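Below is how a single chain appears once it has passed through the pipeline. First comes the sequence as given, then the structure the pipeline wrote out for it. We keep one example in the README because the format questions we get most often are answered faster by looking than by reading.
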Amino acid sequence: MKSSELIKPFRVTQGKDFRLKRIRPGDTLGLKDEFKKEARKHLEKNVARLTELQDKLYAQDQWAVLLIFQAMDAAGKDGTIKHVMSGINPQGCEVYSFKSPSTQELDHDYLWRSMKCLPQRGRIGIFNRSYYEEVLVVRVHPEFLGKQRMPAQLMGKKIWEHRFEDINGFERYLSRNGIIVLKFFLHISEKEQKRRFMERLNDPAKNWKFSTSDVEERKHFRDYMEAYEDMIRKTASDHAPWFVVPADNKWFTRMVVGSALIHALEALDLKYPKVDQNKRNELKAAKQSLDQE
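Resulting structure:
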């Protein structure tokens, strides 16, 4: 299956008519569990292709790529990043995990800590959670707004609409400056999340992954789904699309994410820089000097 065919059902650029219920967390586009072996081969091909494309991205040093991952706990963000990006040169990739904001971060606007971590030209930046937490967890738990030290008159009923406007403007700015923005919502079902939580509790090697706060947040699962749907509806665009990726089957999730990244990089028509005549003369002279040693 071509990358474009694999990602098309899950790519959202016009959010107005988007409904989260239209994408099932267990969807695999008809591919059965028996396809897992083939999926591993597909992933290996994707990793090899990404290695090639990232090398050209780094050498060309013009474009940058920002990957944003949002999901409920246990949806597989860490594993997806680990497997899909396994062939990437560490020199050309940076991963940032955004947790609860620090005191210093709360003394700034909510985009500040993300702006500091934007990728340089030629690099791929990965945000494991992001500024979108400000219209997700803060919206589900509005009491967190009080910790942000904003003037009371700025925290009215339209605060979420204002934040959507700000985020859209920010991402438009990034795209106009050569940063490709790809956003992934790993869409896990409530049932599968419970299964993975139980797996973490029952396996001593995975106990460290579990936090009691995970259970508390699970009580707000439906509230989060409403917040995610509104977020995607209000911030999906051609220049910063959302990919709502079914996450109940990890092998399928990784196929879709890898294919989306490859499709975006291939669209840039990346090439190794060509040297001019002066540079070729320098290289020729250097070669002659080495030959004479």
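The longest helix spans residues 36-60.

See the next section for the split statistics.
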